[in-house]
Amino acid sequence: MGSQAGSFRKASPQTPNIDENEKRIKRLEKLKRDLQNIKNERGILQGILAKYKDLNDRTNFETFMLEMQHNQMMTDLKRMSQDISEALYKCQHLTKENQLYCCRNCHLLIESNLIQHKVRMLWKENRQLLRKQIALEECNIKTKILCKEGSQKIKDEYSRQAAGKQIIVVPGSKEEAAMSNPCA
Quick one: where's region Disordered (predicted)? Predict the structure, then answer.
């Protein structure tokens, strides 16, 4: 029995060793699994953190861009109010100029109408003068024809009388002037 007891003793101390080893191995395996789970969770958390940092960076960038846009918008609004004031001033100035041009245009239209009326009156007067001139030219032509006819008749009569009597014409006398220009 002693050997059994010895073997039992041997087995007993080994059993706790084996049990302890198995417990340790199980505990080690559990720790490995826990470690692996922790690594997995750490990887997931790092991914979330990276996304959060990226999102945070993007949010910061978007905030920066929004601030820049806001500042630009405020500058544009200030400039726009100045531009509106300048445009209003120019509009008022142009309105005054336009009113002056309208008044000037009215005066010029009235003046133009008066000038057109005067031109029409002068055309009428010119036509009347032209008619008178034509009538005078016709009268002048008739007068010349009558003068030529009268001169011819006087010459003929004078020739007939001269044939009957001999008239001596002295150069530079009234008779010579009458013979050379019978209408005068």
Answer: 1-22
Domain contains 108: yes
Number of domains in the chain: 1
Look at residue 2 in the predicted model and tell me its pLDDT.
46
Per-residue pLDDT tens digits for 39-82: 998 888 888 877 777 777 777 778 888 888 889 888 888 888 88
Rg (CA), the chain: 69
Instruction: Classify residue 179: in a domain, yes or no.
Output: no
Tokens of 169: 């014409």
What does the pLDDT read at residue 161? Answer: 84
- Whether 33 maps to a domain, the answer reads yes
Domain of 91, in residue numbers = 20-123
Tell me whether residue 92 is in a domain: yes
| pTM value > 0.70 | no
What are 47's two structure tokens? 């991914």
Taking only the tens place, the pLDDT of each residue in 95-124 is 999 999 999 999 999 999 999 999 999 999
Token pair, residue 116, equals 């057109």
Q: How far is CA 94 from CA 85, 97, 117, in A?
A: 14, 5, 34
Element (H, E) at 170: none
CA–CA distance, 181 with 184 (Å, rounded to integer): 6
Give the pLDDT confidence of 154-165 residue by residue, as tens digits.
888 888 887 776
Evaluate the CA torsion angle 127, 129, 131, 137 in order and state its sign: negative
Q: Is 161 helix (H, G, I), strand (E, B) or coil?
A: helix
